[in-house]
Specification:
CATH class of the largest domain: Alpha Beta
Number of strands: 14
CATH architecture of the largest domain: 2-Layer Sandwich
Structural class: alpha/beta
Distance between the termini: 50 Å
Number of domains: 2
Shape: globular
Number of helices: 12
CATH topology of the largest domain: Dihydrodipicolinate Reductase, domain 2
CATH superfamily of the largest domain: Dihydrodipicolinate Reductase, domain 2
Radius of gyration: 20 Å
Order of helices and strands: EHEHHEHEHEHHEHHHEEEEEEEHHE
Length: about 325
């Protein structure tokens, strides 16, 4: 019988507590050994999930460096779900301690940090998976394979949009503190847009221009960016974080022979060959959850669909977008 994977969680905020509520149902494959959360209130909320599931709450070590020192030898993996600015140092320390890492998006703040994690992954030989639902989804994986195989002809342009009432919902949270978040809506929920579009494009950008609007907030909540792919294809990104209560997305990949329809999380996948006919769904296998896929990669049953190279690709794009927006849309050569 295979022993459950021993995991620790660094960060137990709202998203982490959702994952905990799923992990406590997976006792045959997963055992949560310890938590790391500096907020006593959030740690207590996380503990309640275990109590409600009839399980003893694991210990909480508030300081992440001490968490690794005290529990590293007992852990097979960690799931890092903390503010963006902390990702690089926490992931690097865990890898160097011999622990596999599932890391929330966006992977890091800059391309330099992404290269650092790739070097650490290679040097330590440990596993690093980035929790981008788009790259992990069977819809985006299959769409990427079809596009790379030239199934629909050359990519002419890609249009991506994501919207949410993010600005009002994140007031007085770390997500609107630039030092911790590294950006606003386009670097938070919008990170899925940047990553999935880049995943579908399958190549580097040669040039990017972008504009941000803050709407009186410390970070951008409206953003528009456009780019040119190395092959010449054109791409637009639109992030609206000040709209009605909602959270949704659309991506259209315009090719020579068809239009591919999907979303930033891989919510759907359909293809349209004739504008007078609605898009036809493309069947794909059911999607596994983020943690299930991490376990599958760790066991060797699937190839890592979201390695740190994915994080580097998005970080390079974000570096260019941020640089252009800081100069009122002046194009940046990538």
């Amino acid at each position: 019988m295979i022993s459950p994977v021993r995991v620790g969680l660094i960060g137990v905020g709202g998203m982490a507590r959702y994952h905990i509520s799923q992990l406590v149902k997976m006792q045959s494959t997963t055992r949560i050994v310890a938590l790391c959360e500096p907020s006593e209130a959030m740690a207590l909320q996380a503990a309640k999930i275990f109590v409600d599931a009839g399980l003893p709450p694991p210990p909480n070590q508030p300081e992440w460096q001490k968490f690794i020192t005290e529990y590293g030898a007992e852990l097979d993996a960690v799931f890092i779900i903390t503010p963006h600015a902390l990702h690089h140092d926490q992931a690097r320390a865990c890898l160097e301690a011999g622990i596999d890492v599932l890391l929330e998006k966006p992977m890091v703040m800059t391309a330099a940090e992404a290269r650092s994690l790739i070097e650490t992954r290679d040097r330590t030989g440990r596993l690093l998976v980035v929790a981008f639902q788009g790259s992990l989804s069977p819809q985006v994986r299959f769409a990427s394979r079809l596009l790379r195989a030239n199934e629909f002809g050359r990519i002419l342009s890609i249009s991506g949009i994501v919207w949410q009432n993010w600005g009002p919902n994140t007031v007085n949270t770390w997500r609107q503190q630039p030092a911790l978040s590294g950006g606003g809506f386009l670097f938070d929920t919008g990170a899925h847009l940047l990553n999935t579009v880049a995943d579908l494009a399958g190549e580097d950008f040669s040039e990017v221009a972008a504009w941000f609007v803050h709407n009186g907030r410390p970070v951008e909540t409206l953003a528009v960016a456009m780019g040119r792919l190395a092959s010449g294809g054109l791409v637009t990104f639109h992030g609206c974080g000040e709209t009605i209560p909602s959270c949704a997305s659309e991506i259209r990949v315009f090719c020579e022979r068809a239009i591919l329809h999907t979303g930033v999380w891989g919510e759907t996948l359909a293809v349209q060959y004739d504008g007078e006919k609605p898009p036809a769904p493309i069947p794909v296998p059911p999607s596994m959850g983020v943690w299930d896929q991490f376990l599958a990669v760790r066991s060797g049953s699937i190839v890592n669909p979201s390695p740190p190279e994915v994080g580097l690709r998005m970080a390079k794009l974000w570096d260019a977008i941020r640089a252009s927006a800081a100069n009122n849309g002046t194009p940046v050569q990538c």
